[in-house]
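Thread title: Can someone regenerate the structure for this chain?

I was given the following input by a collaborator and told the matching structure tokens would be attached. They weren't. Posting the sequence so someone can regenerate them.
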Amino acid sequence: MKGPTVRFLGGVREIGGNKILVEDGPDRILFDFGPSFSPRVEEFYVNFLQPRSTNPAKDLLEFDLLPRLPGLYSRDALGDGEFPYTPPEVHAIFLSHAHADHAAYLGLVDPDIPVYVGDGTRTLLSAIETSTRTKYGTHPWRVFSDRRGIRVGNLEVVPYPVDHSIPFAYGFLVRTREGTLAYTGDFRHHGPRAADTHAFFDAVAREKVDALLIEGTRAGPDPRKNLTEAGVRGAVDRVLTSNPELALACTYPRDIDRLRTLYSAAVAADRELVVSTRTAHLLSQVAPRFPRDEIPLPGTSSGLRVHVRKKRVSYLWERPFLDEALPSEEVRRNGRKYLLALDLAHFPELIDLRPPRGCPFLHSMSEPFSEDDVDDHVMHNWLDHFGLEFHQLHASGHASGPELLEIVRATGARTVYPIHTEHPEAFETAGPSVRCPELGRVYPLSG
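Best answer:
Regenerated them for you:
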């Protein structure tokens, strides 16, 4: 029987797009399945030019933007393309967390393949499906428990919670017939749940793993400014206390830690945090997965309000929040009472808000990966037009370069594969165990 192997079908020399196939004899499991942030994708699909909804896998396979892995895709996703449908040959998919670059291609997967997720991640995926156009497909969803092993043939997968910029993120230990590998998913060391990350890597070190598959988003050059979550809170406090007018913020809508930071800062400054209906829906869905009163709830928590945009039609999931929602006119009239969390897609509301010139705009997201990032350019056009004062205040969802090297040395893995990074060679200073993987190549666990 063939020994255990690992194959990297995505996430090689790119941010995002992790697709990791682990095999042991006849048993095959896949870790994560999402699109990458590689510029290669935008060579063919950009803005409104996207794969057809009728046969999306067919359109992506045409340009080798998906791995040609038999027994993975659904019959509908493949359509009548030259890559033929075959019954499932992948026995399970394990999802590390709900970010799009790890999960958004699940809708292409054969509906008979089970998908294993944490309970909180399953809640997040459902909330995202309800309030966006993202669809993850129909699957046998299997909810795992923290640190409890799941057996798939010869393989045993043990999920460990880690800290990341979206809640309910996991790393995994994978035990095979001939040794163990660890897959980190995405993680950080400086967030509110840093203890989870430390516990995971302690387990990796105790296991004496044969292979460590480690994300390296911030490996290599990292000119972006990154704070701790406490550092973000302190900076927001200073901005709010020094500006008496309306304050605006832009953050990732599923970064629950950042929303809590903005909420607590707004309340401390005698303001109310005003969020979109989509964010309100997300908070209402995930709150039961946290300790009581840890997550602010629309309609329940003082200091939290919902902003309603002018729309012709409201969705069913929005309607529970509309009766008490604030229109732009109210936010404009009493701006000094509010901190408005405004998504980039909702910037046209600024035309109605008419914030006074010099109002602070708190950009609590990653800075662009390149200077010609189109969204960043467009954002600054809007800010300049309305005379808003830009503040970059962000705590990364990923470990720093020095932290990554320290982890590699501390775990003592026999072989280290850097993934989810544009600079895998930055790990080589950690020692001879580092091996920069190649896309599609099969690596025996034994080396």
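The first strand starts at residue 5 and ends at 10.
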